[in-house]
Write a structure and sequence with these properties.
Length: about 70
């Protein structure tokens, strides 16, 4: 499957609907973008977990006590 796309004035490229449907990509999902051998590789990241700030705060607080006692 191959499509042509243009880069807009802000550097954005639209992923065609056929590709988004095939990969089940939804609005606000995260993708990884990297360069390999002169090519741009865009891959969906499906395992992004959101963590509440309070939980993260507590984890760092405990780590600090263990480290600096």
């Amino acid at each position: 499957m191959e499509f042509l796309a243009k880069i807009d004035d802000k550097g954005r490229v639209l992923i065609p609907i056929e590709i988004r449907r095939k990969l089940s990509l939804k609005k606000h999902e995260v993708v990884s973008i990297r360069i390999e051998s002169g090519r741009i590789i865009i891959e969906p990241i499906k395992k992004v977990k959101k963590v509440k700030a309070r939980v993260l705060d507590e984890a760092f607080f405990d780590a600090g006590e263990a480290t600096y006692g």
